[in-house]
Amino acid sequence: MRALYLASCLAFPTLAMAASPTTVPFFPDSQYHNDVVSIEQRLGHALGERISAPAEILSYFETLASSYPERIKLVKYGESWQGRPLFYAVIGSADNLAKLDRLESDMRRLADPRNLNKASADALINSLPASVWLAGGVHGNEISPPEALMGLAYHLLADQSAQTKAILANTLVYIEPMQNPDGRNRFVSRYYATVGIAHSADRFSAEQNEPWPNGRTNHYLFDMNRDWISLTQPEIKNQVRVLQQMFPLIFVDSHEMGGDQSFYFSPEAEPYNPLVTGAQRESLDWLGQNNAKWFDQLGYDYFTREIFDAMYPGYGASWPLYYGGIATTYEMGSARGHNYRRTDGSILTYADGVQRNFIAYMSTLETASKRAKDLLQRFYSYRQTSLTQGEKDGIRSYIFPATRDAAGHQKLMGVLTQHGITVNQATADFRACGNSYQQGAYVVNTAQPTYQLIRNLLDDDVKMAEAFIARQQDRRSKNLPDEIYDVTAWSLPLMYNLEVNRCNRAVDVASITVGPDTKLAGKVTDADARYGYIVPWGDMAAARLLSHALQQGLTVKSSDLPFTHSNGVRYPAGSLILSHADNPQLATKIQQLAQSSGAHVTGINSSWIKDGPNFGSGNVQNIPNARVALLWDEPANPLSAGSARFILEQGIDYPVTAIRPAQLLRAELRHYDVLIMPASQGNYKQALGAQAQQKIHDFVSRGGVLVALGNATDWLIQGEKPLLNSKREFKVSEQKKPEAEAQVAGMLLESRELYQQRLEAFQAQPDSVSGFLARAEVDQDHWLTAGVPANVNSIFVGNFIYQPLTLAHGRNVLTFASPEKLVAGGFVWEENRQQIAHKPLLMVQAQGRGQVIAFTQEPNFRAYVDGMHLLYINAVFRGAAHATPLR
Ligand SMILES: [Zn+2]
User: Fold this and answer.
1) Cα separation, 723 vs 719, whole angstroms
2) In angstroms, what is the span from residue 59 Cα to ligand 1's centroid?
3) Of 149, 436, 580, 737, whose CA is between 20 and 30 Å from 751?
4) Strand pairing of 674-677 and 791-798?
5) Strand 523-525 to 705-709 pairing
6) How far is the CA of 85 from the centre of ligand 1 (A)?
């Protein structure tokens, strides 16, 4: 039985302000064929009537794909952390779907102008359909786009109108309903668990308010709409891989925003990334103008330009711009449930969101279908121009000498390759631009179709327009928030802390092309050595080996100081020492450890040291198999808690126990060596209460290690006997304490500057910084910085600036550089630049038998400032080695 779809839809309460249709999807002049399985027939609820769970959405697409294989194809391309399939469906005319493989391979040919003459390119442009990729739900609690994409699939298969036929003849429609199925599942199960017999529209009701962590993020609590630069999460990494199989000409990342807002589509807000081309911006206008036409016709409100910018290249709506597509965000006001009462009293329903998204998608398909040849031509021109731009560019090649941190280099080159960038590794020594390089150095030539992406990822800085910055200065003087939407620096070499040289000539050297693997192949040199093995410290492969060895119960020593072994090699501080005497069957185990970790291990026949401590010295520690607990729930910032767990669990395979702050009083902290306190989005003092706070103090004095991330540092400095003797600073200011009297002595304001200064509050907070890359200087003599080079780059976000510890209290092992050297990349207000200089980034203070370690900025930010990760690992493992509990 296949009932006519429209007859089965329920009527929905609608927005007073708009003449909404009473059924969704509603598209003017549709003629639905009653043969196609409706959502209600498959799922038992009509479109927009319930928030479908991930498994339901998948099952609907599976039903369509098995029922109409000639018109829709389902492709599963990966799995989320929790094992849910990542999939997309492609819908087209039967003609186009029959030759889908060839069409996709033709798009890949068109994408590489190096192997294409003009006649062949023209032939491809004339024969290929347009292609559109519609993605929803990267934020799992932005609920209507995945539903609307189900409705779109139904509509495209069921509608017999000439309009839909034309779209499908000219366009391949890729539908990816859920980029983040784990986040959506968290939202949907929690939502229906809080609903009573009637749905509440009250924004303060339990159903309208998500508990920690909300559904926005994935399993490791990452905002995946920031992950398109370093591809740390399987959901995004796999998506970047599949997008390069067909290079869709238009990519729509479909989101939701606050329920009081209407609908947002392109053009985007300033600042635009300067590496987006004029032609792309014009195409974005085409999309916006056509959407506006439909929204006008149906009476739907919308806005453009005001909020969502196109500067940061790590959004879903940005990355496809840099392979030459058109990428944009759509944002619908969210009902965040079935009903939402807006401030004007009207009720926004879930179905309202579904319907508006659906119209925006149909409008986008119409634009693509009508502009198919233009879009194909523009894509090809983009790729071709990129090639010649690279050839003409002042920078012809980026050269990585790769003399240290082999694991970091391997990871970065693997990531660049995953982005579609060709990376070569020299197989011989060479000279370029006056420098000598050894074999093993990496070279990225700029004359590639991905030229703009190369510049975006490898330049220190991508500048915002001067006029935009001037406007922000002006806004700041009026105490208006700035319009910088995200971080202003994202240079991968800076974030990985790897040296890169820029050369104005293309490098000509024998080389191999690097593959997408991000992990080194491990190896053991002198495997049958008599004494044991050394693993040089300084990269994440060695950290992974430490993790694996400790979990196998091996005894691992680590030197606090660098040393020169009698084999002539100088080893950095932190280097690991494993001896046969301590570890039975080590020769077999070490092979397996090198392989599983990617570390390079060297066998040694004796323990004789020429310079530095011997292995029995007090400067060589046993690293304990640290038991690590992590605070996990309010008031922790979920992004900080998530990345703190991710780097230990997925970066080095080390287990972590997540403990809710509310359970701390009952928890047995003696079972742990290290307690990690993520950055806070609330107030630890309030959340923990006096007793739990005392318990953490006791944990430290008995020999525990407390690691505070970002603004969790604030909790450490509170109270009469703080765990950390630092203070947080107000803004540097001349402003005097206000006088108590109502009338005061007169004063002259002799200039506009003086007037401006008078407006400032007494004891004002420093201005907030949206995020730049800050250079820090490393005290290399401390055990906490073992294996870390003399300078590292950290993200700096916000306005928390701390005073250095005095020598009587502890050490400031990382301090921000002088004002002249501070900014490695990105934008910072001048006053902040002056005030941040020489302030601590990493402090350590011994307390009782334990250690207190504070990162004043988030070291695990988006898990992509890789140069900071070893410091975090050191804090956990070397911190535990330097605490002295009575074991
Ligand atoms: Zn979103």
Assistant:
1) 9
2) 24
3) 737
4) unpaired
5) unpaired
6) 21
